[in-house]
Fold this sequence. Notes:
By secondary structure, the protein is mainly β. The chain is built from 3 helices and 20 strands.
Amino acid sequence: xxxxxxxxxxxxxxxxxxxxxxxxxxxxxxxxxxxxxxxxxxxxxxxxxxxxxxxxxxxxxxxxxxxxxxxxxxxxxxxxxxxxxxxxxxxxxxxxxxxxxxxxxxxxxxxxxxxxxxxxxxxxxxxxxxxxxxxxxxxxxxxxxxxxxxxxxxxxxxxxxxxxxxxxxxxxxxxxxxxxxxxxxxxxxxxxxxxxxxxxxxxxxxxxxxxxxxxxxxxxxxxxxxxxxxxxxxxxxxxxxxxxxxxxxxxxxxxxxxxxxxxxxxxxxxxxxxxxxxxxxx
Length: 282
C-alpha cells in the first residue's frame, strides 16, 4: 500500500485497483467525505467517477446520506417536503480520524460525522480487496455508524421526505459513464425500472468492457432495497431509509456490509452469481 498525505492505494496480487482519498478537496456543499477513486478492474479500466459534471457531489465509492437529523451528508441540494430540491446551508462532513490497520489489501478506519460543529455519528469502516480470478476481484466494504449523542439520531432520504423513488443514502458507487447506459440485472429481473427499489441478493451493472456485481453480505443489508440508476447516470446504492427513517438510539450502532465484484468483460447471470458466491464466502 502506497501512502501519501491524503490517500492510500489498494492492491490485488500486486496490482493497484483503488485509491482511497481520506481528505478529498471538494467544496463544503458537496459534503466532503473519504472515498475510493479511481477504482479499476484488474486490467486497469476505471469503474468510478469523482465529481462528474452531471452530479458534482458523486464521489466514487463511499457512504453518503442525504438526511441525518436534517443535515446533508450526500452533497448538493436537499429535498424538502412540499418544496422540492432546495439549496440549504446544512451540509455535514465525514472526517477521517485514524487508520487502525493498513495493509496492501485493506484497512480499518475511524471517522467522525460532523455538522454545525456537532459530532452526530462515529463510524468504523473496514475495506478489503480480494482476488477472485485472473479477471475479477472483490471489494468488501463494511461501515458501522454509532450514535454518540444523548438523543436518537435518525437517517432519512428524499423518499422518506416525500419524493417517490428517491430512497438513496448509504453505501453508494458512482460508476463509469459511457456512451450507452449499462445493463442492469439481478437473478430474477432485468432493467433499471424492474430492479430499482427491489430487494435482491445481488445486482449487476455491466458496461462496455466491465461488470460490477453488488451483494448485501449480511441479512440486515440484504433487507435494504437497491437504489439504481442507469439511463440518467450509472450508480448503485443500498438504501438505509427506503420507506421509513432509520433511527439509531444513543449508543446504538447500525452496521451494513456490501461486497462488490469488479470484473473485466461483461458477465451473464451465471457468471455474476458464481463470482458473488465466491466473493461473499471468501
